[in-house]
Each structure stands twice: as C-alpha cells, then as structure tokens.
Amino acid sequence: MDYDYIRSRRYPGFVRAEEMRKHRLEALARNIKFHTRLRDCINASSARTIQDKVSITHVK
Which superkingdom, per the lineage (predicted)? Predict the structure, then answer.
C-alpha cells in the first residue's frame, strides 16, 4: 500500500497541512525567483542608462 495513503488515513489533517505548507513554500520560492529576476533586470537597465549618460557627456 502507498505510504502517503496510509499516512493520510491515520492523520488526514496533518497530511493536508503538510501539503499546504509545501505548496506555500513552492509559491514563495517562485515569488522570490521572479522578484530577483525583476531586480536584476532593473539594475542592468539602470546601469546601461548611466553608461549612456556618461558616454554622451564625454562626447561633447
């Protein structure tokens, strides 16, 4: 018999809470990954803008 099935029959509330915790952690990891990519993109964009301004200033 499947271990998760046996466990869920004995402790249905505990297993459900465990699954919810797992889903919340996965969602949190996705959220952190998204915000990290967004931050890196914004930082890269800002760095390019600053470089463009510096190169325009030196051309004059």
Answer: Bacteria
**Whole domain around residue 15: which residue ranges?**
3-59
CA R_g for the chain: 24
Residue 16: both structure tokens together: 């459900």
Cα 44 to chain centroid distance, Å, stands at: 19
Q: What distance in Å separates the CA atoms of residue 33 and residue 39, rounded to the nearest whole number? A: 10
Number of domains in the chain: 1
Alpha helices per DSSP H over the chain: 3-10, 12-59
